[in-house]
Amino acid sequence: MIQRIPTPEKMKEIVSALKCERRSIGLVPTMGYFHEGHLSLMRRSSAENDATIVSLFVNPTQFGANEDLEKYPRDLDRDTKLAEEAGADYLFTPTNEMMYPEGYKTYVKVVDWSGFLCGVSRPIHFRGVTTVCCKLFNICMPDRAYFGLKDAQQYLIIDKMVRDLNMNVEIIPMQTVREADGLAMSSRNVYLTDEERKAAPLIQKGLTKALKMYENGETDAKKVKAAISDTIAESQLFKLDYLEAVSKETLCPVEGILPGTLIAVAAYLGKARLIDNIIL
Amino acid sequence: MIQRIPTPEKMKEIVSALKCERRSIGLVPTMGYFHEGHLSLMRRSSAENDATIVSLFVNPTQFGANEDLEKYPRDLDRDTKLAEEAGADYLFTPTNEMMYPEGYKTYVKVVDWSGFLCGVSRPIHFRGVTTVCCKLFNICMPDRAYFGLKDAQQYLIIDKMVRDLNMNVEIIPMQTVREADGLAMSSRNVYLTDEERKAAPLIQKGLTKALKMYENGETDAKKVKAAISDTIAESQLFKLDYLEAVSKETLCPVEGILPGTLIAVAAYLGKARLIDNIIL
Question: Does A108 contact B165 at a Cβ distance shorter than 8 Å?
Answer without folding.
Answer: yes
